[in-house]
Design a protein that fits this description.
Length: 95
């Protein structure tokens, strides 16, 4: 058995969700639901469209956060927004 982390599949619908899952320690993310939606929408072309949309959203999230490589994604890139609008980064909880 491998030492991998499990991520709930139902919540991973967009590229930024995959970014968050990787930042929380996931080793991989399944994308079956998006592919099935694309297949039902327009067959093979719909699957390509779905995958392109997921990739574009994931890439834009990486760019906005300032990450150049997938292996650099970590908890330091995630934060809660407090009621006053300030940010509390997840890696601060560990200190």
């Amino acid at each position: 058995m491998t030492d991998t982390k499990h991520i709930p599949l139902e919540v991973l619908n967009i590229g930024s969700d995959r970014f968050k899952a990787l930042a929380l320690g996931a080793d991989f993310c399944w994308i079956g639901k998006a592919v099935m939606w694309g297949l039902a929408y327009k067959g093979e072309a719909g699957v390509k469209l779905a995958l392109d949309l997921l990739y574009d959203k994931f890439l834009s999230t990486m760019i906005l956060v300032g990450v150049n490589r997938i292996r650099d994604i970590g908890r330091q890139h995630l934060a809660w927004v407090n009621a006053d609008g300030s940010l509390r980064y997840l890696d601060e909880d560990e200190e």
